[in-house]
């Protein structure tokens, strides 16, 4: 059985998908981009600001599901320019304990929704 996870503290979906799905003890979070849920505007001043907004959107969804970043077991990071990797990784690393950080991949792609620079999805377990 699946449960839809939805919070106003993260951006509303812009297509036929949900912010996250809880199935049993597994949470599957859709890719998050740097939309500020309060203003519905993109946060793209700097790659650091953009990545922080993405991580905060993930955090809001995790909280809605009764979880936090310690529950995350896998992330996928999609970036439009691998030259931004160091700064994205620096911000990303602030949200995880290095000893218990999740598995992940980071992939450079040609384009992302709304032509953002970074999108991150996650899988978590209770």
UniProtKB/TrEMBL annotation:
Coiled-coil parts of chain: none
SUPFAM superfamilies on file: YjgF-like
InterPro entries in UniProt: RidA, RutC-like_sf, YjgF/YER057c/UK114
GO CC, alphabetical: cytosol
Gene3D superfamilies in the cross-refs: RutC-like
Database matches in CDD domains: YjgF_YER057c_UK114_family (cd00448)
Gene Ontology MF terms: deaminase activity
Protein origin, superkingdom: Bacteria
Pfam families: Ribonuc_L-PSP
Family: Belongs to the RutC family.
Name of protein: Endoribonuclease L-PSP
Organism: Gillisia limnaea (strain DSM 15749 / LMG 21470 / R-8282)
Taxonomic lineage from the root: Bacteria, Pseudomonadati, Bacteroidota, Flavobacteriia, Flavobacteriales
């Amino acid at each position: 059985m699946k449960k839809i996870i939805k919070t106003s503290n993260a951006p509303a979906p812009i297509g036929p998908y949900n912010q996250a799905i809880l199935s049993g003890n597994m949470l599957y979070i859709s890719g998050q981009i740097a939309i500020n849920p309060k203003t519905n505007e993109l946060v793209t001043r700097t790659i650091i600001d953009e990545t922080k907004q993405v991580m905060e959107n993930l955090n809001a969804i995790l909280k809605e599901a009764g979880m936090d970043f310690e529950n995350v077991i896998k992330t996928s990071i999609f970036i439009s320019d691998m030259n931004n990797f160091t700064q994205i990784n620096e911000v990303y690393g602030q949200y995880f304990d290095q000893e218990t950080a999740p598995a992940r991949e980071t992939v450079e792609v040609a384009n992302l929704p709304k032509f953002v620079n970074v999108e991150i999805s996650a899988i978590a377990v209770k």
